[in-house]
Amino acid sequence: MWARIVALVIKEFLAVLRDAASRTVLIGPPLIQLMVFGYAASFDLNHIPYAVYNQDSGYAARQLLARFSGSPNFRQVATINNDAQIAPLINDKDALLVLHIGQHFTRDLLTQKPARLQIIIDGRDSNTAALALNDVSGVLLDFNQQWAAAHSQRGPPAQLVMRAWFNPNLRSRWFIVPGLVAQLTLVVTLLVTGLSVAREREMGTFDQLLVTPMRPLEILIGKAVPGFVIGGLEGGFIALMAVLWFHVPFVGSVAALALGMFFFLLAAIGIGLMISSLAVTQQQGLLGVFLFLVPAIILSGFATPIANMPEAVQLLTYINPMRYFLIIVRGVFLEGSTIPMLLSQYAPLALIGLVSMSAAVWLFRHRMA
Amino acid sequence: MNRQRLRGLVRKEFLQILRDPSAIAIAFVLPVFLLLLFGYGVSLDAHHVPLAVVVDQPTAQTSSFIGGLQQSDFFDPRPYPTIGAARAALMRRQVTGIVWLRGDFSRDMLAGKTAPVAVWVDGVDANNANILQGYLQGMWQNWLQLQAEQAGQPLAVPVVAESRIWFNPALRSRDFLVPGLIALIMTLIGALLTALVVAREWERGTMEALMASPVTMGEILLGKLAPYFVLGMGGMLLSVAMAVWLFAVPLVGSFWLLLACSALFLLVALSMGLLISTLAKNQFVAAQVAVIVTFLPAFILSGFIFDINSMPAAVQFLTHIVAARYYVAILQTLFLAGNVWPVVLSNSAALVLMALLFFGIARRKSRKRLD
Description:
The structure holds 2 protein chains of 2 kinds.
Chain A (H helix, E strand, L loop, with lengths): L1 H16 L2 H21 L7 E7 L4 H11 L4 E6 L6 H6 L5 E5 L3 H6 L4 E8 L3 H25 L7 E8 L7 H21 L2 H8 L1 H6 L5 H29 L9 H25 L3 H17 L12 H6 L4 H15 L7 H24 L3
Parallel strand pairs in A: 1-2, 1-3
Antiparallel strand pairs in A: 3-4
Chain B lengths: L2 H17 L2 H20 L7 E7 L4 H12 L3 E5 L3 H9 L5 E5 L3 H6 L4 E8 L3 H26 L7 E8 L6 H22 L2 H8 L1 H7 L4 H30 L8 H26 L2 H18 L12 H6 L4 H15 L3 H25 L6
Parallel strand pairs in B: 1-2, 1-3
Antiparallel strand pairs in B: 3-4
Helix pairs in contact in B: 1-10, 2-7, 2-10, 3-6, 7-10, 7-11, 7-12, 7-14, 8-11, 10-11, 11-12, 11-14, 11-15, 14-15
């Protein structure tokens, strides 16, 4: 039996890697995507383009504006002097926000009336707008504190002193890059396994396989191994790059990550082989891969939190292997999670792997004819 | 170009579609399914965020502060007896943040000093943590205002911010994500529809039969494009209808302009599929390429969710080869801001260029040769 499986595994590896185009597609793009997406996928704003509309000639306005121009988060793109100039700047996306200081700003400040800083902001991208407003209030908070201290005014009765755990500077790269480990591993594994049976069916070589003494289970193991090896190697390499290239802290245990990767690959290969056994043509296989891959990534917590989803969709995420693996990867990288702390994630992941593998075997047997 | 021959090819292609209905499913069922799932599922608006609240010494001042948290829809404050218990809960991911009012909170406030409120947030999801901090700041400012009003004093803050948010005053993330989702879904559908169609003819040997006929390669490609364009536009209309009526995204700009730009984008997406199919000549490789070059780049590099302006310059440059980038900009602008011609025209021009480029390369690379 083992000799047969080994022979089949060699054949499957050859089928995937012999074709130069297929070889390139499997190895090149995931690594390029890691580099590009690692830099691109970030919620951190830097150089927020803003315009200044200052009608006050006093020194307080200049002081406040100097804080914006001195901040690395902001980049001044224009200075305007009437209301009509605001709309074109915002509409054409030349500036994300306009800081408007009215005529009596300095006077109000000196007479201890609340002085107003008006912020006109482009809300098309609501997340960017919300984050930019946060940054503006950060600058304002500093200014207010210093102004109150310098003019011996009373401070506010209470003040928030905020700290973030696990990611003190709130760098979203630390959140996204470990997510990419999961995402790209899933893509590669599905690419290797998702079409493999459908291709044999369409080419007619499936019938040849069936007349050999191999049992269905053996054929399936032969198809699973290349996905496991290629997915595991690329996943491991991407995790290594996350640490060495992107300098994401890795505070947990390597064993915890490896165990998570093992179960995740099992689940991904099971699902890939399920799709593959169901599909009659490669077109259907491709459709199946997309139909699983796209929701699996979008509803995994990779970019938008699961907690924000409605209850029904949240329930759906419990069958998504990405969900558990993301918690494992991020826990191991940032929170220092160890195997005992992650048992509640391994268990459902292993279950999904077991169920999908069995389903693949069953489908495979029943759709052989 | 011969119209009769082209008509014959289109008819053949339509018959093929009707025989394997998976293409019809891709065009009509897929957008509805994906838009439903993601329109509801993808949101950046946090609500009822579980917060651990630790009050060392309950007083009138602390309960007024906690009252501010309780009234807000954003938070779900849960009392914890000690800071140690709250930290343990944060470690176990039962709460996303901690608000700690120390024993001297009321004493400081009554003495006219500024009482510090210690806040910790779980920083693993940095974006969510940022948004949470913003909500807390907002709640804190409301509370200051209320305190000042109750004491009959003016607000003790030197400069107050007054924000006017254009186009999406409530900052509903759905209004910005749903138009982006249409772009993402149409990218997928465009690629799925055409990525395999030329490769399939090669693989099955029917391409040789086509070559033996008097049709030209240009006609073959156009014949493949036309039926899928009709199907794709159907799916597109369904998506726009759902965005407007189901998800209540305001469509401020012109519907006809939206339709024109969408047709343009669909042409780009389909031509890209054709190009993949022509270059690969093999369904397996074509499928792999389609998965890699369509979904993830459209998801991450299009400005659908990650702001392009914040990317490093080299990556920003790369985003120019992602067609979805232009379509996302057009959609977000047409839906929320209106017919802003500079945005629409410059992005449409880029789409025209890409359509010509993809179709042109596909045309050049498909010769009537068997090798």
